[in-house]
């Protein structure tokens, strides 16, 4: 085996580190979270309504699903604030010299 068989620097060099660290804001992804939350928890509420003989749990399920879908969207697409101190401490923690 030669060095060129095991080493692929061109593939690694083409990746943008800023693009890998922050998620992209795909609106279809956010829409999917909202629709899936409303559908899933609305269905659960409807099934509970059938089981208990009530008619209000489906509304609670739909509201809970929408709330959780909004939360999932926020959690997925939030951008972590980076401070200069946090980058320095991470670098020092990983690159400590043995004494």
Which secondary structure elements does this structure contain, and how are they paired or packed?
Elements: H1 3-6, H2 9-13, H3 17-21, H4 27-52, H5 57-77, H6 84-94
List keywords for this structure.
99 residues; mainly alpha; 73% helix; 0% strand
Structural notes for this entry:
This protein is mainly alpha-helical and 99 residues long. 73% of the residues lie in helices and 0% in strands. The protein is built from six helices and no strands. α4 packs antiparallel against α5. The mean pLDDT is 78.
Structural class: mainly alpha
**H/E element string?**
HHHHHH
How large is the count of helical segments?
A: 6
Percent of sequence in beta strands: under 5%
Radius of gyration: 23 Å
Shape, please? elongated
Note the main sheet. none
- Could you tell me how far the N terminus lies from the C terminus, measured between alpha carbons in angstroms? 38 Å
Mean of all residue-level pLDDT scores: 78
List unreliable stretches of 5+ residues: none
Question: How many strands?
Answer: 0
Helix content: over 70%
């Amino acid at each position: 085996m030669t060095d060129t068989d095991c080493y692929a620097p061109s593939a690694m060099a083409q990746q943008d580190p800023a693009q890998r660290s922050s998620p992209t804001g795909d609106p279809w992804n956010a829409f999917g979270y909202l629709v899936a939350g409303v559908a899933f928890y609305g269905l659960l509420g409807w099934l509970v309504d059938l089981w208990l003989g009530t008619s209000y749990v489906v509304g609670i399920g739909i509201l809970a699903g929408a709330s959780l879908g909004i939360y999932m969207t926020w959690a997925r697409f939030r951008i972590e604030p980076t401070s200069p101190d946090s980058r320095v401490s991470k670098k020092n923690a990983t690159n400590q010299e043995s004494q």
